[in-house]
Design brief:
heterodimer; A: 270 residues; mainly alpha; MetI-like fold; 12 helices; 79% helix; disordered C terminus; B: 278 residues
Chain lengths: 270, 278
């Protein structure tokens, strides 16, 4: 008798746990799931489920220069941020992984901190700093601020790649007389190329989606897509938002699947 | 001989990084600290306002309460998801992991916009509630606390699920097996073995979510009402609306200090975990 009631209560707990998990999954996926059908509904009224099928919202997006113009700016800024953070992050990650000197931990902590400092604080600081440098409302300004923000992700991604490399190969190459540069490009880089790719994808998407800092330091001339979306949600709730959101969701899904496919199998299990 | 870089060479590789951090990370934070005490002359006004103003105190209380609720809901849902993921065989786990990771990769604006559509008076959630109850149930979820907490939970969940799942997966599977052989029931095994062993992951997830939610800006601005303003929105308000950089910076320093303490706790936890694993 006692056994049976305990089995019953156990299965109730199991069901409760499972129900909570599914509630969680539903909450996670709900935004992506409802935005896509709505964007194909056409019309000026956002309805779910959509009443008809139409591509008119996407046509509106393509025909409105203020929308695709800001998308283009975001694309340029995200690409420049990716390149700059690769140029800075790749040598830095290698130096941190293979160097041993005093202050290494301090540099590492400083480099990872932008990931944890509240973005609003960084945004305020960058805004006041850029005001004195007249970098507000300029593309280079946004790229520099975004590079600081994405570097931690770049360093973590490349650093984890470097931990999986075989240091003996570099030792052998050195003994055989290869130069430092050649060792890096011909021995190290081929081993970490997927990590570098993952880092670059992080950098691109974080910059492309970043809104808080951009909202502080962009003006009419540099309004990025997220800033445009932010004011659109806030002030007008334009139906074009649904089309933009669908495009961005597809982009995110592609990046997410690519990164998960690129991750080494033993990492996923840790 | 083990390959390593000479000190000078390693520092050369790190030079661009250090210059960038100095000029565009540490310097701006320094500017905030400076502006919090200097406004045409040294002044304690910023901090005095932070301590004395009823508005700022109210917003600080809001921020703490919203952050605590969002972290709690994330913990409950996140733990359930983490258990579900950890008990799946590795091959079946991938599609569910995509569900967890997709929001992490999705723009917060897309998610906020989707919630404004889904949670509104005639949104899908209310349609569903009405359909279940035959029109009796209706829940106001937009421009109030509920909307903010739902939006933030959606944003925080991946940060909660991943560390908890990692600590569940790293548990020795023979421990629950041994307990089972000794006659312990599933609830007892969970409460006495699985849960206590997963606490480091829980602590990491909770600290991460608290840090993130204290600085939240977009979600309260788009999904919350006037009473759900958080500190980040207040900083923006003082910077742009009243052009009072002194008070804005003082609030920012206070926010940074609280997040700093949480971050230190987080690194402490992760270091302890690292050592116990090694």
């Amino acid at each position: 008798m006692r056994n049976m009631s305990s089995t019953v209560s156990t299965s109730i707990w199991r069901m409760l746990g499972r129900a909570l998990a599914w509630l969680g999954y539903a909450l996670l996926i709900l935004p992506s799931l409802i935005i896509i059908p709505i964007s194909f509904g056409g019309g000026q009224e956002l309805a779910f489920p959509p009443k008809s099928f139409s591509l008119s919202l996407f046509v509106q997006f393509v025909n409105d220069p203020s929308w695709w113009g800001s998308a283009l700016k975001s694309l340029v800024i995200a690409s420049a941020t990716t390149v700059l953070s690769l140029l800075i992050g790749l040598p830095a990650a290698y130096g941190l992984a293979r160097g041993s000197f005093r202050g290494r931990r301090v540099i590492e902590a400083c480099a990872l901190a932008p990931m944890l400092v509240p973005v609003i604080v960084l945004g305020l600081g960058v805004y006041m700093h850029f005001s004195t440098l007249s970098l507000v409302d300029t593309m280079p300004g946004v790229v520099l601020a975004h590079t600081v923000l994405v570097l931690p992700f770049m360093l973590v991604a490349i650093g984890s790649g470097l931990r999986h490399t075989d240091i003996a190969l570099e030792t052998v190459a050195r003994v055989m007389g290869a130069s430092r540069l050649r060792i890096f490009f011909e021995v190290v880089l081929p081993q970490i190329k997927t990590s570098v790719l993952v880092g670059a994808m992080f950098a691109f998407l974080i910059s492309f989606d970043e809104v808080v800092i951009a909202y502080f330091i962009t003006g009419p001339g540099t309004e990025t897509l997220p800033v445009k979306m932010y004011s659109a949600i806030r002030w007008e709730v334009s139906p074009v938002l649904a089309a933009v959101s669908t495009l961005l969701t597809i982009l995110s899904l592609l990046f997410c699947l690519a990164v998960m496919a690129l991750q080494p199998k033993d990492d996923a299990n840790q | 001989m083990i390959y390593f870089l000479e000190r000078r060479f390693a520092l050369l590789l790190l030079l661009p990084l250090c210059m960038l951090l100095l000029a565009f990370f540490l310097w701006p934070l320094g500017v905030v600290a400076w502006a919090s005490i200097y406004d045409g002359g040294f002044t304690p006004r910023g901090y005095a306002t932070v301590v004395g103003s009823g508005l700022i105190r109210q917003v600080a209380v809001n921020t703490l309460s919203i952050s605590a609720w969002a972290t709690l809901t994330s913990l409950i849902l996140g733990y359930a998801i983490a258990i579900h993921l950890a008990r799946l065989p590795a091959r079946k786990r991938t599609p569910y992991l995509v569900l967890v990771m997709l929001p992490f990769w999705t723009s917060i604006l897309v998610k906020s916009f989707a919630f404004t559509v889904a949670l509104g008076t005639s949104g899908i959630v209310n349609q569903l509630l009405g359909w279940i109850s035959g029109g009796a149930w209706h829940l106001e979820m937009m421009f109030n606390r509920i909307g903010v907490i739902i939006g933030m939970t959606n944003y925080l969940l991946p940060f909660m699920v991943l560390p908890i799942m990692a600590s569940l997966l790293s548990q020795n599977p023979s421990l629950p097996l041994a307990a089972k052989i000794m006659g312990a029931g599933p609830v007892r095994i969970f409460l006495r073995i699985t849960l206590p062993l997963s606490l480091p992951g829980v602590a990491a997830g909770v600290l991460m979510c608290l840090t993130l939610s204290l600085g939240m800006y977009i979600t309260p601005a788009l999904l919350g009402g006037r009473k759900d303003m958080m500190l980040a929105n207040l900083i923006d308000f003082y910077t742009r609306q009243t052009l009072d950089w002194n008070v804005a910076s003082a609030i920012a320093v206070a926010l940074l200090a609280v997040s700093g303490v949480l971050m230190l706790l987080l690194t402490r936890f992760q270091r302890d975990r690292g050592i116990s694993h090694a």
